[in-house]
Specification:
The protein is an alpha/beta fold and about 260 residues long. The protein has a single domain, classed as Rossmann fold (3-Layer(aba) Sandwich), CATH 3.40.50. The strands form two sheets. The chain has a seven-stranded parallel beta sheet with strand order 3-2-1-4-5-6-9, sandwiched between helices. Strands 7-8 form a two-stranded parallel ribbon. It is globular and about 55 Å long. It starts with a strand and ends in a 5-residue tail after the last helix.
Length: about 260
């Protein structure tokens, strides 16, 4: 295997992916503001600070790909979202270009298209139209747009993973459709890092959920074959009842409660 730099390596997804990729034979480097997992070599870096460019340059020397997971993982003020999720992503993509790293995988989100409604027929494709539900969702739209720019302008390969609900196990009715298990998260990262010449691609980050209404076709095309299914937990989550998938807004919209909650001022 090759060498990958994982930003946000100390986070929930980052620590899971670092451990899984190492088991798969990858050499994993990491960066985060928090302490890195013991088995990950790397350095602390605040990607909102232009001074982090020197740290990135050192970490990318001899690196083959980047998995960019660092960022605010929920709604926040516009100034924080702009600095942490948008400006920092541009900094990472520019560092990759300068270092000759051709593959960047971005942690996008279902919230980039959060106001999209459940289709009447057929699953929602991974390149569903951009309809962000929050400032956070807007940051993921910008992230995807930046990735597409670097593909067109610099000939890089950039994949945007529209992640659903990353959890050890599902615990709400929406998760029966949107769950992404830890094991499938590693499989998704591996496929995104190794798919041959994808150019720019968007992929739903979900497991093989029986009730999924987001299509896995784009993931399958890249070699992502999830094995976990939230349906295993359905009897615990829905004891004797079924959700109204079309009548309840929180279940009918891609973004769930992000799309139905009161916005920040």
């Amino acid at each position: 295997m090759s060498t990958v730099l994982v930003t946000g390596a100390a986070g929930r997804i980052g620590s899971t992916v670092c451990a899984g990729l190492r088991r798969d034979g990858w050499t994993v480097r990491g960066t985060d503001l928090a302490a890195l997992p013991d088995e990950v070599q790397g350095a602390s870096a605040d990607l909102t600070d232009p001074m982090s460019e020197a740290v990135l340059a050192d970490l990318l020397d001899g690196t083959d790909a980047i998995l960019h997971l660092a960022g605010i993982a929920g709604e926040d003020t516009w100034s924080r979202i702009l600095a942490t999720n948008i400006d920092a992503t541009q900094r990472v993509l520019a560092a990759a270009r300068d270092a000759g790293v051709r593959r960047v995988v971005l942690a996008s989100s279902n919230h980039a298209t959060g106001f999209t409604r459940r289709p009447a027929t057929g699953p929602l494709p991974a390149d569903a139209a951009l309809r962000p539900d929050t400032f956070y969702g807007v940051s993921k739209v910008a992230m995807e747009a930046l990735g597409a720019l670097y593909v067109e302008r610099h000939g890089m390969d950039v994949l945007a993973l529209r992640i659903g609900s990353f959890l050890p196990r599902p615990h709400a009715s929406r998760h029966l459709a949107t769950w992404l298990s830890p094991g499938d998260t590693v499989r998704l990262a591996h496929a995104a890092l190794t798919a041959p010449s994808p150019g720019f691609a968007q992929v739903w980050g979900i497991s093989a959920n029986t009730r999924a209404w987001w299509s896995l076709d784009a993931g399958h095309a890249l070699g992502y074959h999830p094995v976990d299914d939230a349906e295993v937990y359905a009897s615990e989550i829905l004891p004797g009842s079924e959700p109204d998938w079309t009548g309840e807004e929180v279940l009918a919209l891609v973004g769930g409660d992000f799309a139905t909650r009161e916005p920040l001022p």
